[in-house]
Design a protein that fits this description.
This protein is α/β, with parallel strands linked by helices. 39% of the residues lie in helices and 20% in strands.
């Protein structure tokens, strides 16, 4: 939700030249495209988060392309944000709707479905880490510019007993690798960093720590950079948003595979 709110708010601010106002309203609503057949039908409510600005609005042509990756009316190379928003929301079973017209402002509606009571109970009772000691004493580097997510990853894997270093930029990642007493065994790396692309950082890290396994974790929508890094030796790819239990399984699988390779030799 942080990423969704940030991307829509930034899009609104840039479109209006950082002038005007943006209102964010939350409320419960009926599921999209649902018609009640009976007056008292028990239809589960969804959550709607509406973003309403009084900016310049969009033409019908622009509106039809607003979620296209890299489409932008303002900056060359920008425009990925709303494509990411669409991917995140639809990945959670939700919908994103937009209404706009020239000089009439823009409205984005993010609609999210509720978790069923059974799903919520199962999630509360589910053990996220069935093997809590598997990662104990192993070393990890987290390269992630989103501070909230980076701290969450650090805390989660420290709880598993790992030693975790965190870098919010490519330059900081290289500093940590060169100064670390013991090289990290695995790296969780976002592809898009504020000072470099992951395709550059990956090869720089390989020169310093050739044995470090790199697991890509990103919301980046373009397939080619991901494929390039996987071909170059990255061990896997996690599409954001992901659940911690799924990331945990991927990291455990990396160490299990290494342990198997060592025992076979």
């Amino acid at each position: 939700m942080q990423e969704v709110i940030e991307q829509i708010a930034v899009n609104s601010a840039e479109a209006s030249g950082n002038k005007g106002s943006l209102r964010i309203v939350t409320e419960k609503t009926l599921p999209p495209f649902t018609v009640r057949k009976k007056p008292n039908a028990d239809v589960p409510f969804w959550v709607r988060v509406s973003f309403l600005d009084d900016g310049p609005g969009m033409t019908s042509e622009t509106l039809s392309r607003v979620f296209d990756p890299f489409f932008s009316t303002r900056f060359t190379g920008r425009g990925l944000g709303l494509a990411v928003v669409k991917g995140i929301v639809e990945g959670h079973g939700g919908r994103v709707m937009v209404q706009s017209s020239p000089d009439q402002g823009t409205r984005f509606d993010v609609l999210l479905p509720p978790a069923s009571s059974r799903e919520a109970q199962e999630k509360r009772g589910r053990k996220e880490s069935p093997e809590p000691n598997v990662l104990n004493a192993h070393r990890m580097l987290v390269v992630e510019d989103e501070v909230l997510l980076a701290n969450m990853l650090r805390d989660y894997f420290q709880h598993q007993g790992m030693q975790v270093l965190v870098a919010h930029s490519g330059a900081r990642a290289m500093e940590l690798l060169k100064s670390a007493d013991a090289s990290p065994e695995v790296c969780l790396m976002d592809i898009v960093m504020p000072d470099c692309m992951g395709t550059e950082l990956f090869f720089q890290m390989q020169k310093v720590c050739p044995a470090m396994a790199v697991l890509l974790c990103t919301a980046y929508q373009e397939a080619e950079p991901v494929r390039k890094l996987l071909d170059a030796g990255a061990v896997g790819f996690m599409r954001k948003p992901f659940e911690m239990k799924d990331l945990y399984k991927e990291v455990v699988a990396i160490f299990n595979k290494r342990a198997g390779a060592t025992s076979s030799t």
